[in-house]
């Protein structure tokens, strides 16, 4: 599967005139006296910066960056920009930590990892962030906590400002699903009913593209044994979390995105628009939680124009 996904990078990220450069590897991440490895992949050339690089933060917690592959389209537009993907620690191709206590996995940890990646890549003087779903939580927390001078634009795509609002939205949507799906979604990690139910739920409110993109399925599978690692997904990282009362501290120009049939329903997304000082909000009417798959061209145009402003 990994070989197939790597091959897809070279196919998806090619332009008619030339193949977009792809590089990557790992950077060391020192935290609480230990050293871990963060995997990253750059589409475009960080050595020839005509445009501010975009750091893409994947959702989860506990999945991988692969489902966000369409965002590399931004590296092959008429005004290309470098796009940086990475797998958060405990996920994907980064260091896995199955022996760690759930309490180890905190927002502090992941914000520190993001800051380290930006510093290690040498882009701290000028960069943009796009965080999807849980990645939007990290992007917003990073902006509020670190107040980075180099952060020029922040995009919060299909994200949440409060775990309580997210839970309320999920409960509403799950109640509309067939009983077998509802029961499967209540099953614990490791129960074979859970991935089946999640796939059915995702096909309605996660990504309606048919056939279901294999990159999306690959990322979702990262939390299910035996091929996946449920360590991060099972940690109570967002229990009781909210950023609503701190959103006024977000300094960069911000774009908020959701889909009309998104898990991030309007009431989940609205606090961003209501509390961030410089903000725009776009809803993709024919999308759910992944408009970058469902309305791909329109999504890239909206994001590209915002980042060029």
UniProtKB/TrEMBL annotation:
Answer yes or no on keyword Hydrolase.
yes
InterPro entries in the record: AB_hydrolase_1, AB_hydrolase_fold, Carboxylesterase_BioH, Peptidase_S33, Pro_imino_pep
Q: Which GO terms describe its molecular function?
A: peptidase activity
Q: Where would one find the signal peptide in this protein?
A: 1-19
Which key words are in the record? Hydrolase, Signal
AB hydrolase-1 domain: from which residue to which, for each copy?
A: 53-295
What GO biological process terms are annotated to this protein in UniProt? proteolysis
Q: Which family does it belong to?
A: Belongs to the peptidase S33 family.
This chain's protein is named AB hydrolase-1 domain-containing protein
The species this protein was found in: Ceriporiopsis subvermispora (strain B)
């Amino acid at each position: 599967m990994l070989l197939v996904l790597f091959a897809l990078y070279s196919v998806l990220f090619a332009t008619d005139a030339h193949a977009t450069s792809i590089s990557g590897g790992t950077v060391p991440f020192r935290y609480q006296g230990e050293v871990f490895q963060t995997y990253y992949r750059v589409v475009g050339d960080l050595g020839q910066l005509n445009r501010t690089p975009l750091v893409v933060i994947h959702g989860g917690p506990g999945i991988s960056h692969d489902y966000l592959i369409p965002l590399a389209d931004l590296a092959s537009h008429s005004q290309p920009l470098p796009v940086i993907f990475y797998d958060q620690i405990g996920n994907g191709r980064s260091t896995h930590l199955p022996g760690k206590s759930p309490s180890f996995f905190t927002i502090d940890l992941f914000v520190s990892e993001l800051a380290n990646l930006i510093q290690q890549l040498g882009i701290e003087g000028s960069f943009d962030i796009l965080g999807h779903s849980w990645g939007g939580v990290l992007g917003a927390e990073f902006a509020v906590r670190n107040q980075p001078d180099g952060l020029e634009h922040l995009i919060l795509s299909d994200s949440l400002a409060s775990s309580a609002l997210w839970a309320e939205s999920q409960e509403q949507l799950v109640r509309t699903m067939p009983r077998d799906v509802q029961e499967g979604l209540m099953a614990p990690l490791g129960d074979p009913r859970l991935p089946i139910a999640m796939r059915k739920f995702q096909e309605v409110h996660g990504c309606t593209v048919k056939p279901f993109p294999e990159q999306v399925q690959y990322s979702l599978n990262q939390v299910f044994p035996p091929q996946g690692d449920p360590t991060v997904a099972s940690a109570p990282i967002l229990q009781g979390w909210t950023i609503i009362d701190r959103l006024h501290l977000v300094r960069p120009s911000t774009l908020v995105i959701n889909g009309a049939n998104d898990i991030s329903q309007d009431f989940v997304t609205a606090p961003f628009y209501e509390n961030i000082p410089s903000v725009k909000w776009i809803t993709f009417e024919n999308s759910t939680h992944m408009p970058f798959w469902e309305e791909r061209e329109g999504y890239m145009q909206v994001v590209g124009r915002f980042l060029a402003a």
